[in-house]
Amino acid sequence: MACKCLPGRNVRKIVAANWKMNLRRESAATLAGALAGDLRQLWLFPAAVHLNSVRLQLSDTKILLGAQDLSVHKDGAHTGDISAEMLKDCGCEMVIIGHSERRQGYSEGSDILLRKLVRACSAGLRPLFCVGESKAERDGGQANAVVESQLLILKRLAPEARAMVAAVAYEPVWAIGTGINATLAQIEEMHAVVARKLGSIGMHATPILYGGSVTPDNARELLTSRSVDGVLVGGASLNYDALSRIDDFAKAQEIAPRGVSTQLEPAPPPEALALLFERDTDDFNIEVKVKPAAPASIVAEVPTTPPSDGALSRYEQELGLRKPPTQPLPRTSQGRLQPVAPTSQGKLPPVRPVSQGAVPVAGDISRKATAPLPTPAPAKPTTPVAPKPASEAPTAEVKPEAPGAKTDKPEKPDTSKNSGPAKKSNIYDDTDRPSWV
To answer: Is residue 402 situated within a structural domain?
Structure first.
């Protein structure tokens, strides 16, 4: 698609409007429609959610539509990000990269900005690259060094990517939204630094804009300077009258050509260049490597594994490699692994004493355990006990000891095998029943 108002030879100066996070859908569309009706040549950068509404107002005009930011990723699981391909699909032709509000507010450094430049150029978006120093850096005499270091990112771009940079905007951070205006001498000095650095890397034709509290009051002075090729307007671009006056000043001026620098910096080695169409390095992209046995000409460009062999399969593999626990499982005092199932009343049945039979729950004589527990083998005595003679066997009633205590009294005779009516035992009597039964 042919560019509608990008700079070239004998063209008017540029006015770029950065609306930032302002306006609503209806007001953004109304302002864009009013500017389009005046046949103006602007670069508009509305909020991402207003791109489609503004685009509908800019058909058959010379106004370029751009985005304020983009993601470093092409596609994938990056919630909230907007890729360069999505912006291109919305009708964008440009994108702002390196704005001071992104550098400081979101800690975007050289690596992130370089990836954004590559992503924008790969999708066909022309970047508007911003540079500028802070108040502390200017007071410390580091303004020139800071701006030159920020421009070094462009040197790492491939030549075809550098040619796609629409403009470089110098924005002193200390003059953005603060009401403090830089003097024309300060602006021309920094623009000369930017122009010299751009010329040393072969970008002598790239326009240089100024952005820093641009208003209709100072726009005329700025645009009449030969070192200023245009302005990047912030808050004043939200007002139709203010933006129209600034654009009137700009279209009356032409961009002055800059001389070609003969002292070009040595080009970086090819391996140091961020190639224009480099493979996306997203973490969620699966790179298929060629096996040694396969021919070198066969290289898979897309994942060949099924979707199920992703993060879930790696998690399952890790589970399969885990070893079983080395510590023994907890056991009860009787050696059982499983706890005793509760009764219908929600209480656990009592534990059977070692030397006694099944014992009902204390306090409830009528209720018996639903399922008697198996009688464990009695513990062997540590010292042998000599059996008593038969003559010394007790003939009278013997009171049992406390539950769970070891006793030598004879077991209750089993009458289940005897025929006839059951006889009352002479050992336990109902009139002398122990309290724990």
So the answer is: no
Q: What is the pTM of this model?
A: 0.63
Identify the bridge partners of residue 133 per DSSP, sorted by sequence position.
Answer: none
The predicted-structure confidence for 75-90, as pLDDT tens digits, reads as follows 999 999 999 999 999 9
Catalytic residues: 99, 171
Dihedral pair phi/psi, residue 129, rounded to 5°? -90, 130
For residue 186 the two structure tokens come to 């300060």
CATH code assigned at 181: 3.20.20.70
**Is residue 290 within 8 Å of residue 299, measured between CB atoms?**
yes
What are 30-50's pLDDT values in tens digits? Answer: 999 999 988 899 999 999 999
DSSP string for residues in 81-125: ---HHHHHHTT--EEEES-HHHHHHS---HHHHHHHHHHHHHHTP
Is residue 52's pLDDT more than 80? yes
In a domain, 319, yes or no: no
Domain membership flag for residue 65: yes
What are φ and ψ of residue 246, in 5° steps?
A: -65, -40
Q: Long-range CB contacts (< 8 A, 24+ apart) of 83-87? A: 83/119, 83/123, 84/119, 84/120, 84/122, 84/123, 84/125, 85/123, 87/48, 87/51, 87/123, 87/125
Give, in order, the Cα–Cα distances in Å from 261 to each of 164, 197, 204, 257, 365.
20, 9, 7, 12, 110
Number of domains in the chain: 1
Decide: helix, strand or coil at residue 208. strand
Give the range of the structural domain holding residue 88, as residue numbers without chain letter.
Answer: 14-259
Q: Is residue 346 in a domain?
A: no
> CB neighbours of 87 closer than 8 A, spacing ≥ 6?
48, 51, 67, 70, 95, 123, 125
List C-alpha distances in Å: 381 to 96, 386, 407.
91, 12, 12
How does DSSP assign 4-55, residue by residue?
SS---TT-BPEEEEE--S---HHHHHHHHHHHHHTT---EEE--GGGHHHHH
